[in-house]
Amino acid sequence: MSAIPMERPMLGDDEATALTVLAARVRELAEATVLTGADAAEAAAVADEIAALTARLTAERRGAPPFVTPGERRMDRQIANPVTGPLNPFAPPISLEVTSDGVVRGEFTLGAVYEGPPSYVHGGVSAMVLDQALGMAAAATGTPGMTATLETRYRRPTPLGVPLQVEAKASRVEGRKVHASGTISAPDGRVTVEATGMFIMPQRFVTSEY
Amino acid sequence: MSAIPMERPMLGDDEATALTVLAARVRELAEATVLTGADAAEAAAVADEIAALTARLTAERRGAPPFVTPGERRMDRQIANPVTGPLNPFAPPISLEVTSDGVVRGEFTLGAVYEGPPSYVHGGVSAMVLDQALGMAAAATGTPGMTATLETRYRRPTPLGVPLQVEAKASRVEGRKVHASGTISAPDGRVTVEATGMFIMPQRFVTSEY
User: Fold this and answer.
1) Distance of CA B136 to CAs A60, B87, B169, B205, Å?
2) Which domains does chain B carry?
3) Which of A57, A183, A203, B136 could form a disulfide with B36 if both were Cys (CB 3.0 to 4.6 A apart)?
4) B65 contacts in chain A (CB < 8 Å)
């Protein structure tokens, strides 16, 4: 039913490097857009130039975001993931590491495009970051799954423009279900948002492996 | 503690219109970036041109995203909101309407930059959309607040590239607390994600009004 195909082109190293730089420039452009003090004429002139660059990029267009060959973790193939993907201008992107005991950790800073209440991170953006971290913690158990439930509790506002920490860990595995929990913390170490979630490995993942 | 100031510049109509067009072009560029089949040399050349445009936009730079003078709803002033803001290239953006009986509704389509599992919407993106819709439903009661809790339940995958519906409504108000619930539905009418949330009006909003 989805209009985006499942099959993926695989990027070579040179392409992945060049597209990662391109995405970083687009990310900076997006932040410049919400913060610019340019007048209407200058904004319109820049908009026209952007349209010409979009046309250049779409001269050769794929049907779906590409993958890269993953290292140890299968999830790392998704180089255009909206939270962690360096190829996705929409992603901060957040580099999430998994320790040998299955703890997912990352440090990140969110700028003006992620603002909810004035000067603070949008509550939905915090939920998005936690969904990704908890999902990776679930996958680290060897049972990667899709989100079934996610509960986020906001203990205090999360500030923009300062280094934040995200951490997550799986708590138990029951067949195809994995429970995980995690937090976002401010620079003073205080937890701003906490989450618990349950992830389920789709039946087709299971059947395709047996 | 946040590095983004609370005070906001107010946009005039001409500026708001020009910046909305600019943001739409940057949004298209972001999608073109994740889908481009350009080779490494072309990607690098386009990246350089984007850097030059970012420099033009940052020649006059604000400290925080601007607001517009709101109509009936105070939340509408936030023209760079990451879910609904036409000025924010990160936002789809989703136009959310509030009916006279307090129901928040919107139709939207999510493209490749919002992908989680191949061909489906990232679970965290669905949570972000629902947080915004439930928050607006809470605000429609006359008690606007920040998210205190958000519980999302994923009933089936949400497809990319097709028109989705989001709907939300407040269920009860208890002093400064408002409870709300909502859903995202696929084109066949089936609910893909449902959410309940609780929103609390900060004490400082209360004291500033009395």
Assistant:
1) 40, 18, 9, 16
2) 1-72 (no CATH), 94-209 (3.10.129.10)
3) A57
4) 34-35, 112, 115
The whole-angstrom separation of Cα B205 and Cα B210 is 9
- The 3-state secondary structure of B119-186 reads CEECHHHHHHHHHHHHHHHHHCCCCCCEEEEEEEEECCCCECCCCEEEEEEEEEEECCEEEEEEEEEC
Give the residue, A69 or B90, on which the prediction is more confident: B90
Distance from CA of B74 to the nearest CA of A (A): 12
- Between the CA atoms of B148, B152, A192 and A86, what dihedral angle is there, to the nearest 10 degrees? -140
Query: What local confidence, expressed as pLDDT, does residue A107 receive?
Result: 98
User: So what's the pLDDT on residue A210?
Assistant: 33
**Token digits of residue A56:** 């250049």
CB atoms B114 and A82 under 8 Å:
yes
Phi, psi angle pair for A24, to nearest 5° = -65, -40
Task: Note the pLDDT of residue B205.
Answer: 52
When pLDDT is cut at 50, 70 and 90, the band that residue B180 belongs to is very high
Question: For residue B95, which amino acid is it?
Answer: S
> How many cross-chain Cβ pairs, A to B, lie less than 8 Å apart?
367
